[in-house]
Write a structure and sequence with these properties.
alpha/beta, Rossmann fold, five-stranded parallel sheet, four-stranded antiparallel sheet, 7 helices
Length: 216
């Protein structure tokens, strides 16, 4: 099993954000998380993506218990197994689109997977071109529209072909065409059987594309 969350809970001070959340996800599967704003969707995705630690429960990624790993080992696991598409793109303003897309290459720990500058550039061009941004490779974030920024962030999430892709409101604030481009890219990995997709959304039609829906 690629991802297993068992009885996950998360508290912030005296406030309980998540309680007893359990889910499993395997390559080739997709799971949509739906809930009202403030119900803990982003918190759950951050826990699954090893960005937050749960207050209780067990989290396994490819059989590895995250609670048993130190900070460095968690970083390695996150870099090698997870691609994260944030609700707010969090692009780096000083980097061009192709450089933003290739940021994950800086965190490769396995020597055999390390990429040369030429390989990074080629991979970024390939991904951004597939997302319709072949003419925006050298643009900075301030020169891009909201939809274009989201597509750059999508390329970044997919850059290392991670087996687990996590997307927080991937179509939020996007027009229909940009939403189609982004979601087709994300689901393309799932349909190939190479990755699992866990995403949060308010969009009923997007939630309906998932194999399963988790309502918080």
């Amino acid at each position: 099993m690629l991802l297993q969350l068992c009885a996950i809970g998360k508290d912030f001070g005296t406030e309980s954000i998540l309680k007893d959340v359990t889910l499993t996800l395997e390559r080739g599967q997709s799971l949509a998380v739906v809930a009202p704003s403030g119900a803990g969707k982003s918190t759950l995705l951050s826990i699954a993506g090893l960005l937050l630690e749960p207050s209780e429960g067990t989290l396994l990624i490819d059989g590895e218990d995250a609670a048993q790993l130190n900070d460095n080992a968690r970083s390695v696991l996150r870099a090698e197994k997870i691609g994260f598409l944030f609700q707010h793109t969090q692009l780096i303003g000083a980097l061009r689109a192709s450089e933003n897309a290739s940021v994950p290459a800086n965190f490769i720990h396995t020597p055999s997977r390390r990429m040369s500058v030429a390989d990074r550039t080629k991979r970024a061009k390939e991904l951004l071109g597939g997302l319709g941004l072949e003419d925006r490779l050298h643009h900075y974030p301030y020169q891009l529209s909201v939809g274009q920024k989201r597509r750059v962030a999508t390329a970044r999430a997919l850059f290392l072909d991670p087996p687990l892709v996590i997307a927080d409101e991937p179509t939020n604030d996007l027009d229909a065409e940009n939403a189609r481009i982004v979601t087709d890219a994300l689901f393309g990995r799932v349909l190939s059987g190479e990755a699992a997709l866990l995403y949060a959304t308010h969009d009923e039609s997007l939630a309906a594309r998932a194999d399963r829906v988790l309502a918080l």
